[in-house]
Amino acid sequence: MELLYEIWLHTICDFDPGLVAKIVPRFERRRLGFSSPELDMLELREIGVPEKLANRIGEPEYFKKATDIIEYCRDNGIRIVTQRSEEYPNLLLNTGIAPRLFFAKGRKLELNDAVSVSVSGSRKPSDQGKVIARGIGRSLAENGIVTVSGMAEGIDAEAHWGAIEGGGITIAVLAGGVDVIYPLCNRKLYYEIIKHGTVISERPPGTVGKGYFYQQRNRLVVGLGLGTVFVEGEIKSGTSMTARLALDNNRDIFAVPGNPMNPHAGLPNQLIAEGAIVVNDTNVPAEYYRAQNPELFKAVPRIPEPEEPQKAVLTEEDKIIKYLKEKGDAIALDEISEALGIAVSALSGKLTVLAIKGSIRQESGNRYIIAKK
Hints:
Blueprint: H1 2-12, H2 17-23, H3 37-46, H4 51-54, H5 61-75, E1 78-82, H6 90-93, E2 101-106, E3 115-120, H7 127-142, E4 145-149, H8 155-165, E5 170-173, H9 187-196, E6 198-201, H10 211-223, E7 227-230, H11 238-248, E8 252-255, H12 266-273, E9 277-278, H13 284-292, H14 316-327, E10 331-332, H15 333-340, H16 344-357, E11 360-363, E12 367-370
Parallel strand pairs: 3-4, 3-7, 4-5, 5-6, 7-8, 8-9
Antiparallel strand pairs: 1-2, 2-6, 10-12, 11-12
Helix pairs in contact: 1-5, 7-8, 8-9, 10-11
């Protein structure tokens, strides 16, 4: 009955966290709508609840909607996580932005026994931004840190993929229901996260995300991480609103410096000027938390290795690293191209990516050498 009442309360408010926050404190000691619906409707209107929504407490169809939601979740492997649930993350609970409940699909959340970091950035990042975001997600995973993001196209998706490639856990916070895949280009990613991580949302199943849902979604992205890494984003953007949320909730702020001429570097550069931790290497966030909070690091579930690993196939990037390791010295671009049979135009881009990752270092004369660890 307790869960039914919670869901019913949310259906009355259209699952709007702001309205739920207004209503709950006024009705914690007595059940809304169970004694005098007329007086309750009047009181709801007095605290700013729209009349259309306040009148719903006398309409039985909303109990039916609440019941339907609970049954749908039970039949489709969706968990309803309330603040009383063991699964509810303490990190989120101990903030002023904690929702009364959320929906979860995938692995059971284990954030109370792990370190988690959020990643945020542009939906239309540069190629370099994509590489960095994926590298950060991979580094977090390899250090046993959970990666949290919003499964949007761009930086979010790259961070999730990096965490999966690193054999770790990643959490996607959606603006719509946990059973609604958006954007569709992330369909494959969604199923990988369901398999190896968790998808969560404040909105009930079947809900399609809309404008302000994304702003509300970002509260949870910030709340679920000890800190937030900002890879790319314009000064006036949704990412900047996420940065404000992180600051308001005393989260650590990390930012990747960028070219001042690139509009997407505007927000990270501004955050750095205001004191954000500079991410000049994809390992910075992981190393920071290992140094600051060694007692927080515990083993978290990792993606199981295949029982019979397939024979590794070297990528061109792997071949470049192997070749430079064998040579030991700085090798010219043309010489690498000739030795590996990779066109100079293609090779140049791959060398840039490897340099950003910190695997190699460029020296004078367009020569490259393995970076010293």
